[in-house]
Amino acid sequence: MNAATLNVVGRPRIFVDGARSDKLEADLIRLEARADAAGVASLEAVFLNWGSRERGQPVDFVHFRRSTVDFGKRLRVAFSVDGEEQTVFEGPVTGIGASFPELRPPELTLLAEDALAALRYRRRTRLSEEQADGDIATSIVEAAGLRADVGRQGASHRQLWQVNQDELGALRARSGDALLSVRDGTLHLTEVSAANETPLRLTRENQLLRFNVVADLAHQRGEVRVHGYDVAAKEAIHESVGVDVARRLASGGRLGAELVTQVFANAADDLHLAAPATGNEARTLAEAAMSRRACRFLRGVGLTKGTPALRVGSRVELVDLGPWFAGTYLVTAVTHRFDQLDGYRTEFVAQRPDLGDDR
Fold first, then answer.
1. Is 0.90 surpassed by the pTM of this model?
2. Measured distance CA(22)–CA(2) in Å, rounded
3. b/e for 269-296, b at 16 or more Cβ within 10 A?
4. CATH 1.10.10.10 fits 197-215+298-355, yes or no
5. pLDDT digit string (tens) for 276-304?
6. Does pLDDT of 3 surpass 60?
7. Is the CATH number of domain 119-193 3.30.450.20?
8. Secondary structure (3-state) at 26
9. Can you give the residue ranges of every domain in the chain?
10. Sign of the torsion angle spanned by Cα atoms 245, 148, 94, 81
């Protein structure tokens, strides 16, 4: 996508159980739709709740009607971009609140969460045998009635117990550092290294209002070592990975895993509590730990004029930021906001593994 200014309609469209609600749209004061890599997107929307339901009727509370809003009704929020509707949130109402200010009319607050929230309400004990993390995650998602698009295999387990744990916690445990998001009834679980959609180009000449970024060595390591014991072979397990794992994620710039060893000679991470059963499992765990650290070398927070296409797992190409910080970032958290002061704004958190070079 080029850097041309997008024609985004500033006010959101609001749907209740599939039907557009003109009244909720007209009475909207502010909303905030949030999503991050851990899953469970949420919505908070505040509406004016005082007036006449129909012309000629007496003034009263407008939205205290179960036929209009109620627990379980599905809310969908979308914006129009160049005439095409783009959804930024969809999920059932899980909370209803009210505010009665001293100097303003009464307000109604609606809280909603996406379909992934349902996994919090199911607690199970299960044994998985000879399965990889990706297979276990697929079983959890499909048992909840969702389709699964699990793009990671992860470590393999001879036996793995889930003991009195809610399904959401179990899913996150098997997801590693992958990105979780629900779209159109499908849970997408994507490895950071596999997020490869076409980048959305943002510049201060079109949508990008501000961007703050830092490259930080605090959590970088030049080597990750995993230790354990192979009961079957009756021998100790010692596996390690280095900068080569981080390099696979980068685009040619300077890696935090390389730079940290120039500043601190013994910057290594030893993991003794991972309890791998085999050497292959230990190496998989080491690679995952190294990748998790490497991907977060650069972390930034940006604000746009309102970009519905931004979601968890999006890739953004940020230009006009100089040779060190310009480049392609992975979006790990997004908040779509609307209020009557600033209109529509999108805040995002993004990361990348390498710092550009000025040579």
1. no
2. 33
3. bebeebebbbbebbbbbbbbbbbebbbb
4. no
5. 888 888 998 899 899 989 999 999 999 99
6. no
7. no
8. helix
9. 13-117, 119-193, 197-215+298-355, 223-294
10. positive
